[in-house]
Amino acid sequence: MVSALFPTYARADLAFERGEGAWLAASDGERYLDFGAGVAVNSLGHGHPHLVGALTAAAVKPWHVSNLFQIPEAERLARRLVQATFADLVFFTNSGAEAVECAIKTARKFHAVEGRPERYRLITFEGAFHGRTLATIAAGGNPKYLDGFGPPVEGFDQVPFADLDAVEAAITEETAGVLLEPVQGEGGLRAFPADFLRKLRALCDARGLLLVLDEVQCGVGRTGRFLAIEHAGVTPDIAALAKGLGGGFPLGACLATHEAAKGMTLGTHGSTFGGNPLAASIGGAVLDVVLAEGFLARVASLGALFRQRLAELEDRHRGVIETVRGEGLMLGIKTRGPNGDFAAAARAEGLLTVLAGDNVVRLLPPLVIDESHIAEAATRLDRACARLSAPAKEPGAAS
Asked: Would you say the pTM of this structure is higher than 0.90?
């Protein structure tokens, strides 16, 4: 059957019917250990009882009323995000790209109301991925995402990864701030060093710039802290969240301090669906779990254990694995052969992963996994490496 969908994805010939925790069952009955989590979206796995309960309760209430009216569920969720982070104010969106767009607009508007409308440019970094809208592909700067969509949106100056001298050299009278992912996802699980982030914060303060974070993939507990920037002890001015915030339901948020958001006044921004009762109810249920006592510490501990197991695999399979990267339960394997071959071998062993740039395979399990899931994933990755290490058979050789 010819698909009626845009052919913009290279979809695996695999469809799922059921899910429970970290496991998915395909339509052919095969079970897969899901260490892709819908690209870090299914933060609580599949069929989490608390999420199911929240969805069921919200489903019999108004799903959507628009932001022309009070939405108590969104107010509650915003207050909890403020209490858990640096932020004073929150704007809800439906996706990460929209959250980043809001962050970009917030940074530009801040300088405009300060009487500096010429300061609209953001410094970004090589390997970044900030979304698929016209502004966010320009911020990311990847030629393959920009090709064919006309002149890139103005206002972004890209510099090499974690190069503070390059950042300082790129600052002009038009610079509004710096935008980065504390741990790059699509760019290959590269984490900005803590010392770099601290020096960058000091540079922004000295030059009157805003520090803007894209925590769409690395936020909401993925690295063992609610925001990944917390590992460096750095406070941003603006941050974008999404993916894990909704646990599988489309939900994003732009967080900001009162000062950074001073330009976002009545009528300056909007969203039809952002923060509607259904989405906000589910986001609140995710926070019930992620912000529970001990949860984030457990994610950090499991991340350290998983990284140790991956390091053991690296030692055993040096012809397949070049290095292991990442933080918490946001880990990546840089492979020596094509990363697509590695992901296919893992899938053949019943383990789902996600590709990334720089020849990396991402491992993004639900945050609710336990030690047994890590052991099982390591076993399946070991078998995948053995598949890739096995010598190719000569044509016509007996099987």
From this structure: yes
